Structures are given as structure tokens and as C-alpha cells.
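ok so i was messing around last nite and threw this chain in just to see what happens. nothing serious, just curious
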Amino acid sequence: MHPDLKGVVEVQQLDQQVVELTVLIESLPKQIQTLQSQLDDFIHTHEERKKRLTANLKERKDLEGEIKAIQEKIAKHKDQLYQVKTNEQYRAMLKEIEGEEGGIRKIEDQVLEKMIESEEIQKHVQEAAARLEGEKARVASEIKRLQEERQKDMDERAGFETRRKELAGALSESVIALYERIRTYRPSPAVAEVRDGLCTACNVLLRPQAYNELRRNDAVLTCENCSRIQYYIEPADEQTEGGKGTRVTMS
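result:
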């Protein structure tokens, strides 16, 4: 294979690897942020439940205070029953006591609801408290792993970029300029394999003469349709006229 053709194919392979690694590198900070946000949400929910539990206790105490105040009022009214002078006043007092006792029952229902709510919140708080340190450790470990993975990818990308610079520097100026121009104006790839007479980039069938010329791999040629640089790899099972199997490699 022509040295420039082999070189430009390898340059493209390195460029593709650099792009893939860049996508991974750029995605890792978002993954780290997502992990940290999940932990922050977990902690925030836990703290909000603790606040709700404290508020629930205060609400129950306030309701119990209301019950006590009404009970004191009822006791006072019962003492006053012995001081009324008419049946009408007596019945009115009993009715008032009955209404106050009904009020107590309603408040007691609210207290019961608060107690049920408190038990449920307490359950979640205890479960979260038991998990909290484990969640912190898990997230810290995962973030560390992602950071190490990102650094590894960055080092690998730097190696590819160095190798790419070396290969590009060894190419003729016209070929590397052609490659860079195609990369600018055409979607990837800039260098396309021809397989079964078709350009694999634009899927257009080559003219027989152009196909035969391309198969020699002794020059840098471009597709007559999409202008991409083309190369050919002979299938492993293709036979020569003498019956011996040959394969054109990238070497």
C-alpha cells in the first residue's frame, strides 16, 4: 500500500479514537455531578423528614395543649352545674359541655393522625440514617473511580494525539491538506474503504476502470462522487489467477 495512503488511514483511525475518548472525557464530569446531586437530594430529603418529624411533635404537643385547656374548661363548667338555678340553665350548660367533649374527640383524632404520620416519618428517618454513611462512601468511591477513569482517558488521548502528530508529519503536504479539507467539509469518514466496488461512505458504485486502479493501492485516489480518499482491502478468501489466496494488508 502506498505510504501516504497507509498513513492517512492510520491518522483517521487515531482521529476517531481521539473523538471517542473526548466524548467519554466530556461526559464524566456530568456523571460525577449526577452522582453528587443524587447524594445531595438524599441528604436534603433526610433533613426535610427530620424537620417534619420535629414539626409533627410540636403540632401534637399543641393539640394536646388544646385538649388540656378544653378539659379544664369542662371541669369548670361541671363545677358550675351545681350553681345554676334553672333547668334551662342546666340544660344549656350540659349542651356546652357536650360540645366541648365533641371538640376533644376531634382533636384526639388529629393527634392520632399525627402519631401515625410520625411513625411513618420516623421509619424513613431511621432507614435513611442507617444508609447515609454508606451512600456517602459509595458516591465518594464512584466519583474517585470516574476521576481516575477520566485521567486515564486523557492520558490515552494525549498518546493518540502525539502519535497522530508524528504520522501526519510524515505524510506529504498535499495528502494531509486534502485529508484536513475533507474532514472540514464532509461528515466522517474522510477516508473510506471501497468494498465490492462501492464507496462505503456514499454507497456509490465505482466505474470499473476506477475500481481496478484503486485496487492497486499504489496512489492516493478520491471518490468521484463524494471526494473522500479511498482505499481497498482485498478479502481474505479472494483468489489470484494462479489459485493462491492473497490479502492486501495495511502494512
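not much to say yet. Confidence is low (pLDDT under 50) at residues 239-251.
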